[in-house]
Amino acid sequence: MRSYLDFEKAVAEIDAKIDELTGVVAAGGSVALNDEINRLETKAQALLKDLYSALTPWQKAMVARHPLRPHFKDYITRLIEDFSPLAGDRAFGEDEAIVGGLGRFKGQSVCIIGQEKGWDTESRIRHNFGMAMPEGYRKAIRLMELADRFGLPVISFVDTAGAYPGIGAEERGQAEAIARSTEACLALGTPNVAVVIGEGGSGGAVAIASANSVLMLEHSIYTVASPEASASILWRDAAKAQDAATNMKITAQDLLKFGIIDGIVSEPVGGAHRDPEAAIKSVGSSIETALKTLAPLSSDQVRSKRADKFLGIGRKL
């Protein structure tokens, strides 16, 4: 199944022509058409490469939100062995926007926490589109404390538009839960690595992404508020979301330059949604490298290194 973004119309037209010619060949048409198909495939690949080498911040936001982009559960399936999910915050209930548990990564026992948006209408509603309630962050705190007790590294996968802003969430202490979860990340005596795999929205992302090593996929975004929300706040006009995306510096490339993140994970040409297997493999390699770098450190060194990283943000600009 293919799904094209607005700026990919030229690629969509070429792919439609390829499908048409492929159908003709399959129906017994001239095999000479294979040369034309190969030429069009080469042209489409070159066009994709040109497009994705010069994406605007708003276009990157569109790619980060692509419905076919690999989700947290895709990473769990391909990177984590013997995953055992753990549910509930032991205070109010279960929140399925944040999924977490224990498993093995490259043979090492780890704690995994991530935001799951869902992949169809039913699952999106069940996971609340990846927007966690307070109990989701309190579950994350419980898992991080468990990991700290048993000396397990923590791997976080970030993909959320933000924490859920509903009345019920606010009544149950959304801001406090986010703050406590962020504090739990920073207090960990074991290494933690966070990867922004799609959207990294506001405190909802920071709550599980305050890690020793913060990585971003090449075409993901990480922002204090969505471009649409920021445009509404700054200009009272959500239509200016493109201007907000540009001015807020939400791309991985900008954030690496400012020292907000520690590394960028390359995506396949045309984005992670075009080759999920390659994208997930690349993320796995980057996580493995980050954990190996942190492994020799003592608990005090892990905390100190993490504190220095966050206290140093903005001081070298």
Tell me about this structure:
With 317 residues, the protein is an alpha/beta fold. The chain has 2 domains: 49 residues; 251 residues, 2-enoyl-CoA Hydratase, Chain A, domain 1, CATH 3.90.226. 50% of the residues lie in helices and 16% in strands. The chain has 14 helices and 8 strands. The mean pLDDT is 92.
What is the first-to-last residue Cα distance?
44 Å
Low-confidence stretches: none
Oligomer: single chain
Write down the overall geometry: globular
Named CATH topology of the largest domain: 2-enoyl-CoA Hydratase, Chain A, domain 1
- Major sheet: size, sense and barrel closure? 8 strands, mixed
- Summarize model confidence as the mean pLDDT: 92
Secondary-structure map:
Elements: H1 9-26, H2 33-52, H3 57-64, H4 72-79, E1 80-85, E2 98-105, E3 108-115, H5 121-126, H6 134-149, E4 154-160, H7 167-171, H8 174-187, E5 192-201, H9 202-209, E6 213-217, E7 221-223, H10 227-235, H11 241-248, H12 252-257, E8 263-265, H13 276-294, H14 299-311
Helix pairs in contact: 1-2, 4-13, 6-8, 8-9, 10-11
